[in-house]
Write a structure and sequence with these properties.
- It is a single chain.
- By secondary structure, this protein is an alpha/beta fold.
- The chain contains seven helices and ten strands.
- The strands form two sheets. An eight-stranded parallel β-barrel has the order 1-2-3-4-5-6-7-8, surrounded by four helices. A two-stranded antiparallel ribbon has the order 9-10.
- Helix 5 (about 160-165) runs parallel beside helix 6 (about 185-205).
Amino acid sequence: MFVKICGTTSEGDALLAVALGADAVGFIFAPSRRQVSPMLVADIVKRLPPEILTVGVFRDESPQRVVTVAARAGVRAVQLHGRESAADFRWVHEHVRVMIRAFAAGDPEVAKASDYGADIVMLDNPNPGSGQTFDWGLAADVPVGERLMIAGGLTPENVGVAIAQVRPWGVDVASGVEREPGRKDPVKLRAFVANARRAAAEHESTSGPAAHGPYDWQQEDDWKRDNDAQPDIG
C-alpha cells in the first residue's frame, strides 16, 4: 500500500510523515490554505531520504510553469489537479519523471484516464481539500490496469473501510491527519499509516500493474541522463 501525505507545509511535518512510514510527501503549489513556496519546499526536500517520493501539486497552470516550479522546488513528481489536457500532461511528463493525474469522482474524463499516460491515477472529491469523502463505488470508472490512488476525506477511522471496498494501489490524505489546516497531528498520522497498512495486508490491496511504487530513486541518475529535465521555454 502506497501512502502519500499531502498538504505538507513544514520541514517538521515532512520528517514526521517519513518517520511514521509514508512513501510520499506532497506540497501544494496551487491556491490553497496549505499553499507553499518553491523556495520552502526546496529546503525541505533536501532533508528527506532519497527513497521518499516528493510531489508538487498544481491546478490549471501552464505546462511550462509547472515544469519550472517543480524543478525549482526539487520535487521528483508532479500531480495535476485541474482541467489539464492529455497533451499538456504528456508534455510535462517529458520533463518530470513521475506524474499523477487527479480526477474528480464522477467526472466523465475518468474513463479516459489511460490517455494521459500517468504513473498514478488519483480519484478525489469534486471539492478537493474539503475533507469530505465521495461515493467510493465511482472508483469503478477508472480503467483497469491503472495504479489507482484514492483521496478525499480519508481519516484514520475510515481508511481501512475505503481500502476494503476499493482495493486501491495507494491512498492520499491531507486534512484527515491535521490538528489544524497545514499542521499535522502526530497521533492521527501514525494511526492513518498503520491502519492503511493493516487493511492492505488483510485485503491484499495491490491494484494496478504493480504493488510497488512508481519511482526507483536508485535509477534517478540514469533517468536524468536520458531526459532533458529543463525544457527550453523561452
